[in-house]
Write a structure and sequence with these properties.
- The complex is a heterodimer.
- Chain A has eleven helices and 14 strands.
- Chain A has a single domain, classed as Alkaline Phosphatase, subunit A.
- Chain A is an alpha/beta fold.
- The radius of gyration of chain A is 23 Å and the shape is globular.
- Chain B is of the alpha+beta class.
- Chain B has five domains: 108 residues, no CATH class; 159 residues, no CATH class; 180 residues, no CATH class; 166 residues, Jelly Rolls (Sandwich); 168 residues, no CATH class.
- In chain B, a hairpin with a 5-residue loop joins strand 5 and strand 6.
- The longest helix of chain B has 34 residues.
- In chain B, 46% of the residues are buried.
- The chains are: A alpha/beta, B alpha+beta.
- At the A-B interface, helix 1, helix 4, helix 6 and helix 7 of A face helix 16, helix 17, helix 29, helix 30 and helix 31 of B.
Chain lengths: 486, 993
């Protein structure tokens, strides 16, 4: 599956793609299939689709999924892990227990904090990895590491790699869709779903549920003084005629016919995207399953609260399901925005309870709804869900009730798509400070390798040559985490 | 010496140097003993099979074989690993032959002796025998058949046609005059000709096409539009942007002078060698010239992690990693841009394919060891600059005296028996005070003063004279500078009341605490009773000795409460005025003083103790620090103040964001002031695996090019960059000249002679016409004029061919890599935008200056949001050429991004070209395009023949009968705006033949 593709010169595949118009899908799978880079799996795939849930700002593992009785035992006492500690912002405060109770859930008996208890219903489908280590305590770099596998900008996102490797499963919607927090983009903005040196059609398309239009430029400006539905339709017919004449006078340049086709696809996308965004016909019990609010996206968010967070995250999860049903390959859902004021992300330096409470409840309701809904539709088997964040948070206090960054250990969890449920692979130490077994941590490369493995791709073989290096998502690292693969 | 001869033949000059050096380090007798006769054979085996992983930089499996002394835990292990039918090593490539294993075994049995000082190189990568590294020589002109002479206009054509015939191909006929003109306008200026310009050219070409064409070439090369268009190509390569990127993605408001510099340089046809040298070390090589400073904007053009540099800093590992990656970006940009060599591969291991070692890489990092990316003045007159320097020097000496005095004071304090204990206890109490509950609205905050003895007042208007019982002042709580409770509470103050808002008449004193220091109150309410019966309206608190913050002084209060006899707070939400105030909502604003929001300590006893102890501490300090010292302190403070004032009264000069060794400290982001940071060899590129310190140097890529710079011991940081600059433009440099000529060729033909323009290494693409490339490169090196190169290219017959297809030729060379026709050009994102602006008649050709922002900027204080969808495309501020756009990294401009615009966070040597449904949607529906269609229509609808006018403006031709019938009918139904929208969406508007 490895191919020669210097970024400066799109290789044969990109060339073919540009010939036929490279919008993913395009019903041109046949043409592209001639190229070995596409549609050729290294092994039978268990998963076909991926949903990446990203908690921007760094979600605390010790307040959600990684239960640490020691924090309760030593709460308020000086925290001393027995080695020098360098924190991002502060000096270590006292040992800080979670403001929430942990209880066991499911057959597996996994301890979950109250604020993620909604996931208790599906905990037997989830595999937890508690010994993820990062490379940095800086948000931007940590976020890039999780989304692209590198700490500096310039590398394609995981979703772009998968779009590149597997192509599209539909004709009318993008392959890689991003549902950002409507209050703002996380660190690095669009770099988290850029295709960078992969062909541009593998970049993420942003969909903003509730915005009009949900995809930029899907329709003419609403306030247009001259474009009407009729002028638009009649215009497309004239355009097709004139563009076809132009192409006919210039035989042998298939870009010209591809461009004609791209206008037809655009019209089809207007219909299918609108239909996919429309949740009005979803029954009430489904909306409840995802935790949607009666007020809809207009729910009051003046002060951070769980109702609003549930609505925001739940709606994105519901739309994600509709997009998955319609053949979207990779969906990134964001919880939390940039580091603005007032805080609407997981970067709880000041107060874990105030921000993590509503965010975690909203996230876990939406995620649990998505998992249950996919399961009842028979789609969980081939849809992989990955929950991640840029790093974790410290077991000690920052200014009494907050927590500073912890890149030394944090949690990811995966579900569906060939994942073994109800298991925990990799532990953190008694504090949740570093991995229990420091010589065998899990890294983002292993998560990405496992993800690609489940999609039928050998992570060492999906490469593209860029500036002298055969680049891959997992850099020169990565091993499949066997313990969580069913 | 037989073995040595063998080595000479196969090894790089650099290797030779090291090897000779190692030999010369031995006495002859030593050499005989220390180097067994078989070492050359051992060396060959190691270099061919082992060194690429088991080198000092990578230490795979903790085994180092590229230098002595060799450390083997188990000597037999190594032999075992390479022996047998399926040996574990080497991982890649062929198994070792029995004879080779025998040699290794003998060597290991002898104790694995290794010549001291010798470093082996991966023999795959180390040699210079590669097309792009061979010395640049003028190729002989291609020999061609007599009948081809007629086709050849210049020497380019000779190389091209020779190769075409070799491939059983032949050139296409020349394109027609209209096509040539339209192509040339776009190629050289990025804009279409106006109808009048086209008409003028067609008239001239009717008599003599060749002459008319050459005149047009000259005219366009002299047009200012040329520099604007070609600067865009350059900015793609140098990753130019107007924000920092990463977290927060703050605005970089002074990047644009570099962009203008590039435009200016192209328009002035600045010799390329100088253009290169200026961008690396213009400030050193041409001191006193604005361009010399501005050009180093190149070094600073890439993304920069604000948080890691300003908030984290070099004191922490993350900050050091960021610094390392920051230099990596500078090194990478320099070598990728100017030499098309991927030096960055050698950060973690020796380059696997090209002759760049890790040592080379870290030496190059050392060149940039003293510079950061920061704002820098570029246009000051030398006298002012001198004055500025001398004042800055005076200021820093005063500050160092101040810090010496501070140290002395600290020592005196330390000598006191109780003071330390008190301070420890104070710290504890402050920590307890951390749980003080406070609202986001902190209080009132005056401007910052340099001296404590600056009077500042804040006053309250009760709205009407009222009878008053008491006044309460409550201090702020702010962790800034670890102060916490009592933040900003004045040391001395007085409270007065009056019925005159100006306090000029009828002023009565409530309390006067201006004669002695007031006991430190923390956040405990301070109550002052009022004995006057008279009703009063205004209350004023005047701070006469401000509170210290961090080498500066302020006056802040959380709350002012004014109680009447019933205990009601009359001050609540009344009007507050002050001499000055910082308005930074929600924390600081005047109204916070009377909002009933103030810190509530959880542990009042502790706070009382805190307040008492603070006062005690002040008392002790007075005894410990003599009057003389206090006077010294005050005098220094005054002198600093004066000097700062003098400095600030000097002309400021204009700023450019560039490479800087001196700049104002911002948080943890501190300038080196010219002293290079030590640069260490980092094993596997890991900041924690520090090796030897590296001196500045470069990869030695040609004969007699030394790896280490020969610089005097007292050399400046600028000398390092200047040496690098001269290395780049050395006539012997095999890459620089080939690289630029290929880039220019690529932009003219849509494809480079080398199709990996940023990588001329072994992993890059081979040249399709090496002789032509070298011929152009030598010419250009000897006369580094870009305009001459453009002229040579566009006046060739090769460039003038038609773009029409030919099925037979296409079956031989479908990619047109041998240039048997012209490549139909798809407009780039910027060309599309500029063309739409031109057609609509809105284009404003104003040059230079700060970029236009085609977004609405929100939340700029903290994490800027760039809201493109909220921008009104009617706004004439943005009706300028796209080169002048303010380029945001975290949120790339959506319209242009969809149209394959270059991403500003990576070097883009060649744009992607895709055709997608999203492009169709954006060209049809984006508000910018809708606006352009509307204005395009206004421009033509009142003309005699609107359709013909529209076609001339958009396509430089008249419509044919078919087009006329379709579009006239459509216009009759839906109007001209809709019709213009269609024209902007025509294939012909997007493609240039």
């Amino acid at each position: 599956m490895s191919i020669d593709l210097p970024s400066q010169q799109p290789g044969r595949r990109a060339f073919l793609a540009s010939l036929v118009g490279s919008f993913p899908g395009l019903a041109l799978t046949d043409l592209l299939a001639q190229d070995s880079a596409i549609g050729v799996l290294h092994r039978p795939a268990k998963a076909k689709r991926v949903v990446q849930l990203f908690m921007a700002g760094a979600a605390s593992h010790v307040d959600t999924f990684d239960y640490k009785p020691s924090l309760e035992k030593y709460h308020g006492k000086a925290w001393d892990p027995g080695e020098g500690i360098e924190l991002f912002q502060s000096t270590p405060g006292h040992t800080l227990k979670s403001p929430w109770q942990f209880r066991q859930h499911g057959h597996c008996g996994k301890h979950l904090s109250e604020v993620v208890a909604p996931l208790g219903k599906v905990v037997d489908d989830i595999a937890f990895v508690h010994n993820i280590v990062g490379k940095t305590a800086v948000h931007s770099q940590g976020t890039l590491l999780q989304t692209t596998g590198f700490t500096t900008p310039g590398y394609p996102s995981a979703g772009s790699w998968i779009s590149y490797g597997l192509g599209s499963m539909n004709d009318n919607l993008p392959t890689l869709v991003v549902l950002p927090d409507h209050r703002g983009l996380a660190s690095n903005g669009t770099k988290n779903w850029s295709s960078m040196f992969l062909p541009a059609q593998h970049q993420g398309t942003v969909i903003q549920p509730g915005a009009n239009p949900p995809i930029a430029d899907l329709f003419p400006p609403r306030n247009s003084s001259f474009i009407t539905k009729k002028s638009d339709q009649a215009g497309l017919a004239v355009l097709k005629k004139l563009n076809s004449q132009y192409a006919a006078q210039r035989p042998g340049d298939s870009r010209l016919t591809a461009r004609i086709r791209s206008y037809e696809l655009a019209a089809r996308m207007q219909l299918s995207a609108t239909e996919a965004m429309d949740v009005s016909k979803e029954p009430g019990y489904i909306k409840d399953l995802y935790g949607l609010a009666a007020e809809g996206p207009a729910v009051n968010d003046n002060k951070i609260n769980e109702k609003a967070e549930s609505e925001f995250f739940g709606r994105k999860c519901l739309i994600a399901r509709r997009l998955l049903e319609r053949g979207v390959r990779f969906i990134q859902i964001w919880s939390g925005n940039d580091n603005g004021h007032p805080r609407r992300n997981w970067d709880s330096h000041e107060n874990i309870e105030r921000d993590h409470g509503p965010l975690a409840l909203g996230m876990s309701r939406g995620a649990a709804g998505l998992i249950q809904d996919l399961k009842q539709r028979g789609m969980l088997d081939d849809t992989l869900i990955l929950w991640t964040t840029e790093f974790g948070r410290m077991p000690c206090a920052q200014r009494g009730v907050g927590r500073d960054h912890n890149p030394f250990v944090f949690t990811n969890w995966l579900c569906g798509g060939g994942i073994k449920g109800g298991v925990t692979a990799g532990q953190s130490d008694e504090w949740g400070y570093k991995p229990l077994d420091r010589s065998h941590p899990t890294e983002v490369y292993d998560i990405h390798a496992t993800m690609l493995h489940l999609l039928g791709i050998d992570h060492e073989q999906l490469t593209v040559r860029h500036n002298s290096i055969d680049r891959r998502l997992t850099n020169v690292f990565g091993k499949v985490i066997k313990d969580i693969v069913a | 010496m037989k073995s040595a001869t063998l080595i000479f033949k196969n090894q790089s000059p650099r290797f030779l140097l090291t090897f000779l050096a190692s030999l010369s380090a031995f006495s002859p007798s030593q050499a005989k003993d220390a180097v067994p006769p078989t070492f050359a054979a051992v060396q060959t085996i190691l270099e061919k099979n082992c060194i690429s992983c088991h080198n000092y930089g990578e230490k795979k499996g903790d085994l180092v074989l590229d230098r002595g002394p060799i450390k083997l835990d188990d000597p037999n292990e190594l032999i075992k690993l390479v022996s047998g039918s399926d040996p574990e090593m080497p991982k890649k490539g062929n198994h070792l032959k029995t004879a080779q294993i025998t040699i290794l075994k003998k060597w290991i049995d002898a104790g694995a002796p290794f010549p001291e000082g010798l470093v082996l190189n991966d023999s795959h990568a180390a040699d210079l025998d590669w097309w792009s590294l061979r010395p640049l020589q003028k190729s002989p002109l291609a020999r061609i058949a007599a009948e081809d002479e007629a086709w050849c206009r210049n020497d380019i054509d000779r190389f091209i046609i020779a190769k075409l015939h070799e491939k059983n191909l032949s050139p296409s006929p020349q394109a027609d005059a209209r096509t040539l003109a339209r192509r040339l306008y776009y190629d050289l200026t990025g804009l279409p000709p106006t109808p009048a310009q086209m008409q003028q050219f067609l008239q001239a070409s009717a008599t003599d096409l060749d002459q008319a064409f050459e005149n047009l070439v000259d005219k366009l090369l002299n047009s200012q539009r040329y520099g604007e268009h070609w600067a865009r190509h350059w900015l793609d390569v140098v990753r130019y942007g107007d924000t920092h990127g990463y977290d927060k993605d703050k605005l970089r408001l002074n990047a644009w002078p570099y962009r203008d510099y590039v435009i200016r340089s192209f328009n002035d046809d600045k010799p390329y060698s100088r253009f290169v040298e200026e961008q690396i070390a213009g400030d050193v090589l041409w001191p006193g010239t604005p361009d010399g400073v501005i050009a180093t904007g190149f070094i600073a053009a890439g993304p920069w992690d604000y948080i890691a540099h300003v908030e984290v800093g070099e004191g922490k590992v993350d900050g050091r990693v960021a610094k390392n990656m920051d230099r990596d970006d500078m090194v990478t940009a320099t070598f990728n841009t100017f030499m098309s060599i991927t030096i960055q591969c050698a950060r973690c291991h020796d380059h696997k394919f090209d002759p760049v070692s890790m040592e080379d890489y870290y030496r190059t990092q050392a060149v940039f060891a003293a510079v950061d990316r920061a704002n820098r003045v570029y246009d000051l007159d030398p006298a002012v600059q001198k004055q500025q320097q001398s004042l800055s020097a005076k200021l820093s000496s005063l500050k160092s005296s101040q810090s010496d005095l501070q140290k002395k004071i600290s020592q005196l304090k330390l000598a006191h028996p109780n003071l330390k204990k008190i301070e420890v206890r104070l710290k504890e109490l402050k920590a307890i005070g951390q749980d003080t509950v406070k609202a986001p609205e902190y209080g009132f905050h005056s401007h910052i003063a340099k001296s404590p003895r600056t009077e500042k007042w804040v006053q309250l208007d009760l709205g009407a004279p009222s009878s008053l019982k008491s006044i309460e002042l409550i201090g702020c709580h702010d962790d800034y500078a670890d102060i916490g409770p009592g933040f900003g509470f004045p040391k001395r103050f007085r409270i007065e009341v009056s019925n005159d808002a100006t306090f000029k008449t009828g002023t009565r004193s409530i309390t006067d605490k201006s004669q002695a220091d007031y006991p430190f109150p923390g956040v405990l309410p301070q109550v002052f009773d009022i004995d006057y019966k008279k009703k009063l309206r205004f209350i004023r608190i005047t701070a006469t000795h401000l509170a210290e913050r961090k080498n500066d002084y302020i006056f802040a209060l959380a709350e002012l409460r004014v109680l009447d006899h019933s205990g009601k707070n009359l001050a609540l939400e009344k009007t507050v005025s002050s001499l000055d105030s910082i308005q930074a909502a929600p924390r600081w604003r005047k109204s916070n003083l009377v909002d009933d929001k103030f810190p509530h300590p959880q542990n009042e006893t502790a706070m009382k103790e805190l307040s008492k102890l603070e006062s005690k501490r002040s008392q002790i300090l007075k005894t410990v620090i003599s009057n003389k010292i206090q006077q010294q302190q005050a005098a220094l403070g005054e002198a600093i103040k004066t000097t700062e004032k003098q400095l600030s009264s000097l002309p400021k000069g204009k700023l450019v964001y560039a490479a800087a060794a001196s700049f104002k400290t911002q948080g943890q982001f501190k300038a080196t002031t010219g002293t290079p940071r030590p640069i260490y060899f980092l094993t596997r590129g890991d900041i924690r695996s520090v090796g030897p310190e590296m001196s500045p140097g470069v990869p030695p890529l040609w004969d007699h090019s030394p790896a280490e710079f020969k610089l005097a011991n007292n050399h400046t940081e600028g000398d390092r960059r200047a040496t690098l600059a001269r290395y780049l433009t050395d006539k012997k440099n095999p890459l620089t000249w080939r690289s630029i000529v290929n880039r220019i060729w690529l932009y003219h033909f849509g494809r480079g002679i080398v199709d990996s323009p940023g990588d001329f290494g072994r992993m890059g693409a081979p040249p399709s016409h090496l002789e032509l490339l070298d011929w152009l490169a030598v010419d250009f090196r000897d006369q580094p004029s870009l305009k001459a190169l453009h002229r040579k290219i566009v006046t060739s017959s090769t460039w003038r061919q038609s773009s029409a297809n030919d099925p037979r030729k296409s079956s031989i060379d479908s990619d047109n890599q041998f240039y048997w026709r012209a490549q139909r050009h798809k407009l780039t994102a910027e060309e599309m935008r500029d063309s739409a602006l031109t057609a609509s008649g809105l284009m404003n050709l104003k040059m230079g200056g700060p970029g236009f922002q085609d977004f609405v900027l929100e939340k700029n204080q903290h994490s800027p949001h760039y809201e493109y969808q909220k921008y009104d495309p009617q706004n004439p501020a943005s009706h300028r050429r796209s080169i002048y756009r303010f380029i945001v990294r975290s949120r790339t401009q959506p319209f242009l991004t969809t149209l394959d615009c270059a991403d500003p966070s990576q070097s883009v040597a060649k744009r992607d070209e895709t055709t997608t449904a999203l492009q169709a949607l954006t060209l049809l529906n984006n508000p910018f395009m809708e606006t352009m269609a509307k204005h395009f229509a206004h421009r033509i609808e009142n003309q005699k023949d609107p359709l013909a006018a529209a076609f001339q403006l958009a396509l430089n031709r008249t419509p044919n009968a078919d087009e006329r019938s379709s579009l006239q009918k459509y216009a009759a139904h839906y109007g001209w705006a809709n019709t213009c929208r269609l024209i902007l969406n025509l294939n012909e508007f997007t493609y240039v033949d």
